[in-house]
Amino acid sequence: MLARLLISLCLLASAGRIADKPITIYLIGDSTLSVKAIADYPETGWGMPFAYFFDETVRVDNRAMNGRSTGSFLTENRWQPIVDSLRPNDYVLIQFGHNDEVKTKKTYTTESEFRTNLLRYVNETRARKAHPVLITPVARRKFGAAGELEDTHAIYAELVRTVAAEQAVPLIDLDRQSQALLRQLGPDASKLLFNHLAPGEHPNYPSGRTDDTHFNELGARRMAELVLTSLRPLTPDLTARLRQPVSGR
Fold first, then answer.
1. Does domain 23-238 have CATH number 3.40.50.1110?
2. What domain of life does the native source organism fall in (predicted)?
3. pTM of the model
4. Which of 76, 148, 158, 201 is flagged as catalytic?
Protein backbone atom coordinates (compact mmCIF):
# COMPACT_ATOMS: atom_id res chain seq x y z
CA MET A 1 0.00 0.00 0.00
CA LEU A 2 2.81 2.39 0.92
CA ALA A 3 4.60 1.59 -2.34
CA ARG A 4 1.46 2.36 -4.35
CA LEU A 5 1.05 5.65 -2.51
CA LEU A 6 4.64 6.65 -3.25
CA ILE A 7 4.22 5.79 -6.94
CA SER A 8 1.02 7.84 -7.12
CA LEU A 9 2.72 10.82 -5.50
CA CYS A 10 5.62 10.57 -7.95
CA LEU A 11 3.24 10.47 -10.91
CA LEU A 12 1.36 13.51 -9.63
CA ALA A 13 4.59 15.41 -9.13
CA SER A 14 5.71 14.50 -12.64
CA ALA A 15 2.37 15.62 -14.11
CA GLY A 16 2.68 18.91 -12.27
CA ARG A 17 6.14 19.49 -13.74
CA ILE A 18 4.84 18.77 -17.25
CA ALA A 19 1.90 21.13 -16.77
CA ASP A 20 4.22 23.88 -15.55
CA LYS A 21 6.69 23.49 -18.43
CA PRO A 22 6.83 26.82 -20.29
CA ILE A 23 5.11 26.96 -23.66
CA THR A 24 4.74 29.56 -26.37
CA ILE A 25 1.56 30.66 -28.11
CA TYR A 26 2.38 32.09 -31.53
CA LEU A 27 -0.15 34.43 -33.13
CA ILE A 28 -0.02 34.77 -36.91
CA GLY A 29 -2.32 36.89 -39.02
CA ASP A 30 -3.04 40.45 -40.06
CA SER A 31 -3.49 43.93 -38.60
CA THR A 32 -6.62 43.06 -36.63
CA LEU A 33 -4.47 41.20 -34.08
CA SER A 34 -0.96 42.61 -34.59
CA VAL A 35 1.12 44.69 -32.19
CA LYS A 36 0.79 48.39 -33.04
CA ALA A 37 3.40 51.12 -33.12
CA ILE A 38 3.01 54.06 -30.76
CA ALA A 39 2.28 56.25 -33.79
CA ASP A 40 -0.80 54.13 -34.54
CA TYR A 41 -2.34 54.39 -31.06
CA PRO A 42 -5.19 54.11 -30.07
CA GLU A 43 -5.45 51.44 -32.81
CA THR A 44 -4.96 48.13 -31.02
CA GLY A 45 -4.78 44.55 -32.28
CA TRP A 46 -6.63 41.96 -30.20
CA GLY A 47 -3.40 40.01 -29.78
CA MET A 48 -2.04 42.76 -27.53
CA PRO A 49 -4.45 42.35 -24.57
CA PHE A 50 -4.61 38.59 -25.24
CA ALA A 51 -1.00 38.29 -24.09
CA TYR A 52 -1.91 39.36 -20.55
CA PHE A 53 -4.44 36.59 -19.89
CA PHE A 54 -1.83 33.93 -19.11
CA ASP A 55 0.55 33.26 -16.24
CA GLU A 56 4.34 33.22 -16.34
CA THR A 57 4.47 29.70 -17.83
CA VAL A 58 3.09 31.02 -21.14
CA ARG A 59 4.85 33.31 -23.59
CA VAL A 60 2.62 34.90 -26.22
CA ASP A 61 4.69 35.70 -29.31
CA ASN A 62 2.60 37.90 -31.59
CA ARG A 63 4.04 37.60 -35.12
CA ALA A 64 0.95 38.99 -36.89
CA MET A 65 1.72 41.83 -39.30
CA ASN A 66 -0.35 44.59 -40.84
CA GLY A 67 -1.57 43.91 -44.37
CA ARG A 68 -0.55 40.26 -44.55
CA SER A 69 -2.40 37.37 -46.11
CA THR A 70 -1.78 33.64 -45.85
CA GLY A 71 0.33 33.97 -48.99
CA SER A 72 2.41 37.06 -48.23
CA PHE A 73 3.15 35.79 -44.73
CA LEU A 74 4.79 32.80 -46.41
CA THR A 75 6.57 34.58 -49.28
CA GLU A 76 8.07 37.15 -46.91
CA ASN A 77 9.60 34.28 -44.92
CA ARG A 78 7.67 35.15 -41.77
CA TRP A 79 6.45 31.59 -41.23
CA GLN A 80 9.62 29.49 -41.48
CA PRO A 81 11.34 31.12 -38.47
CA ILE A 82 8.28 30.24 -36.40
CA VAL A 83 8.38 26.63 -37.59
CA ASP A 84 12.07 26.45 -36.67
CA SER A 85 11.27 27.75 -33.17
CA LEU A 86 8.28 25.51 -32.44
CA ARG A 87 8.60 23.05 -29.57
CA PRO A 88 6.28 20.20 -28.61
CA ASN A 89 3.04 21.46 -27.02
CA ASP A 90 3.44 25.02 -28.28
CA TYR A 91 0.39 26.58 -29.96
CA VAL A 92 -0.10 28.49 -33.20
CA LEU A 93 -3.27 30.60 -33.46
CA ILE A 94 -3.96 31.34 -37.13
CA GLN A 95 -6.26 34.18 -38.25
CA PHE A 96 -6.15 35.34 -41.86
CA GLY A 97 -8.72 36.37 -44.44
CA HIS A 98 -8.99 40.17 -44.39
CA ASN A 99 -6.25 40.64 -46.97
CA ASP A 100 -6.64 37.31 -48.75
CA GLU A 101 -10.17 38.05 -49.94
CA VAL A 102 -9.69 41.51 -51.51
CA LYS A 103 -9.07 41.02 -55.23
CA THR A 104 -7.65 44.53 -55.72
CA LYS A 105 -4.82 43.94 -53.22
CA LYS A 106 -1.43 42.46 -54.05
CA THR A 107 -1.97 40.10 -51.13
CA TYR A 108 -5.06 38.54 -52.73
CA THR A 109 -5.13 34.76 -52.66
CA THR A 110 -7.64 32.63 -54.51
CA GLU A 111 -9.93 30.36 -52.54
CA SER A 112 -7.83 27.37 -53.56
CA GLU A 113 -4.59 29.09 -52.54
CA PHE A 114 -6.11 30.16 -49.23
CA ARG A 115 -7.05 26.58 -48.43
CA THR A 116 -3.63 25.28 -49.45
CA ASN A 117 -1.87 27.86 -47.29
CA LEU A 118 -4.02 27.05 -44.26
CA LEU A 119 -3.22 23.36 -44.69
CA ARG A 120 0.48 24.17 -44.78
CA TYR A 121 0.27 26.10 -41.51
CA VAL A 122 -1.66 23.25 -39.89
CA ASN A 123 0.53 20.42 -41.17
CA GLU A 124 3.86 22.09 -40.45
CA THR A 125 2.71 23.00 -36.94
CA ARG A 126 1.69 19.42 -36.26
CA ALA A 127 4.94 18.09 -37.71
CA ARG A 128 6.71 19.88 -34.85
CA LYS A 129 4.31 18.26 -32.34
CA ALA A 130 2.73 21.65 -31.67
CA HIS A 131 -0.98 22.52 -31.78
CA PRO A 132 -2.65 24.62 -34.51
CA VAL A 133 -5.85 26.56 -33.80
CA LEU A 134 -7.76 28.09 -36.72
CA ILE A 135 -9.64 31.38 -36.27
CA THR A 136 -12.13 32.82 -38.74
CA PRO A 137 -11.48 36.48 -39.68
CA VAL A 138 -12.92 38.95 -37.20
CA ALA A 139 -15.92 40.91 -38.50
CA ARG A 140 -15.78 44.37 -39.99
CA ARG A 141 -18.23 46.96 -38.72
CA LYS A 142 -20.36 47.43 -41.84
CA PHE A 143 -24.02 48.23 -41.27
CA GLY A 144 -26.45 48.72 -44.15
CA ALA A 145 -28.96 51.53 -44.56
CA ALA A 146 -31.59 49.55 -42.67
CA GLY A 147 -29.23 48.97 -39.75
CA GLU A 148 -28.37 45.36 -40.54
CA LEU A 149 -24.78 44.13 -40.19
CA GLU A 150 -23.33 42.86 -43.46
CA ASP A 151 -21.37 39.62 -43.58
CA THR A 152 -18.07 40.73 -45.14
CA HIS A 153 -16.12 37.47 -44.79
CA ALA A 154 -18.69 34.86 -45.84
CA ILE A 155 -16.56 32.91 -48.34
CA TYR A 156 -13.17 32.96 -46.63
CA ALA A 157 -14.57 32.40 -43.15
CA GLU A 158 -16.36 29.31 -44.46
CA LEU A 159 -13.11 28.05 -45.96
CA VAL A 160 -11.51 28.25 -42.52
CA ARG A 161 -14.41 26.32 -41.00
CA THR A 162 -14.15 23.66 -43.70
CA VAL A 163 -10.40 23.14 -43.25
CA ALA A 164 -10.83 22.98 -39.47
CA ALA A 165 -13.55 20.33 -39.79
CA GLU A 166 -11.70 18.24 -42.36
CA GLN A 167 -8.41 18.30 -40.46
CA ALA A 168 -9.90 18.05 -36.95
CA VAL A 169 -8.30 21.35 -35.97
CA PRO A 170 -9.74 23.34 -33.04
CA LEU A 171 -11.77 26.25 -34.43
CA ILE A 172 -12.52 29.65 -32.95
CA ASP A 173 -15.32 31.16 -35.01
CA LEU A 174 -14.45 34.77 -34.32
CA ASP A 175 -16.32 35.89 -37.43
CA ARG A 176 -19.69 34.73 -36.10
CA GLN A 177 -18.93 35.69 -32.51
CA SER A 178 -17.84 39.22 -33.36
CA GLN A 179 -20.81 39.63 -35.70
CA ALA A 180 -23.12 38.67 -32.85
CA LEU A 181 -21.46 41.24 -30.59
CA LEU A 182 -21.72 44.01 -33.17
CA ARG A 183 -25.38 43.22 -33.85
CA GLN A 184 -26.08 43.30 -30.13
CA LEU A 185 -24.47 46.73 -29.81
CA GLY A 186 -26.03 48.10 -32.98
CA PRO A 187 -24.79 50.71 -35.49
CA ASP A 188 -24.08 53.43 -32.94
CA ALA A 189 -22.72 51.71 -29.82
CA SER A 190 -20.50 49.43 -31.92
CA LYS A 191 -18.45 52.48 -32.92
CA LEU A 192 -17.06 52.48 -29.38
CA LEU A 193 -15.03 49.35 -30.22
CA PHE A 194 -13.33 50.75 -33.31
CA ASN A 195 -10.77 53.41 -34.09
CA HIS A 196 -13.24 56.25 -34.51
CA LEU A 197 -11.82 59.66 -33.62
CA ALA A 198 -13.07 63.19 -34.11
CA PRO A 199 -10.69 65.80 -35.58
CA GLY A 200 -8.29 66.96 -32.87
CA GLU A 201 -9.27 64.15 -30.49
CA HIS A 202 -5.88 62.44 -30.68
CA PRO A 203 -2.49 63.80 -31.83
CA ASN A 204 -1.81 60.70 -33.95
CA TYR A 205 -4.89 61.48 -36.04
CA PRO A 206 -5.24 65.28 -36.13
CA SER A 207 -7.80 65.11 -38.94
CA GLY A 208 -9.80 62.41 -37.16
CA ARG A 209 -10.33 58.78 -38.10
CA THR A 210 -13.22 56.54 -39.14
CA ASP A 211 -11.92 52.98 -39.22
CA ASP A 212 -14.44 50.14 -39.17
CA THR A 213 -11.84 47.38 -39.43
CA HIS A 214 -9.33 48.13 -36.67
CA PHE A 215 -10.06 48.31 -32.97
CA ASN A 216 -9.31 50.71 -30.17
CA GLU A 217 -8.22 49.38 -26.77
CA LEU A 218 -11.76 48.53 -25.68
CA GLY A 219 -12.57 46.74 -28.93
CA ALA A 220 -9.33 44.77 -28.90
CA ARG A 221 -10.04 43.67 -25.35
CA ARG A 222 -13.55 42.52 -26.24
CA MET A 223 -12.28 40.52 -29.23
CA ALA A 224 -9.51 38.96 -27.16
CA GLU A 225 -12.12 37.93 -24.60
CA LEU A 226 -14.17 36.25 -27.34
CA VAL A 227 -11.08 34.32 -28.44
CA LEU A 228 -10.29 33.30 -24.87
CA THR A 229 -13.86 32.18 -24.18
CA SER A 230 -13.74 29.83 -27.17
CA LEU A 231 -10.21 28.68 -26.38
CA ARG A 232 -11.03 27.50 -22.85
CA PRO A 233 -12.97 24.30 -23.70
CA LEU A 234 -10.68 23.53 -26.64
CA THR A 235 -7.40 23.67 -24.71
CA PRO A 236 -7.70 22.64 -21.04
CA ASP A 237 -3.92 22.83 -20.64
CA LEU A 238 -3.98 26.53 -21.55
CA THR A 239 -6.96 27.14 -19.29
CA ALA A 240 -4.87 25.84 -16.39
CA ARG A 241 -2.29 28.53 -17.16
CA LEU A 242 -4.63 31.54 -17.04
CA ARG A 243 -3.85 34.26 -14.54
CA GLN A 244 -5.95 33.97 -11.43
CA PRO A 245 -7.67 37.09 -10.05
CA VAL A 246 -6.07 38.54 -6.95
CA SER A 247 -8.42 38.30 -3.98
CA GLY A 248 -9.04 41.49 -2.06
CA ARG A 249 -8.08 41.67 1.58
1. yes
2. Bacteria
3. 0.89
4. 201
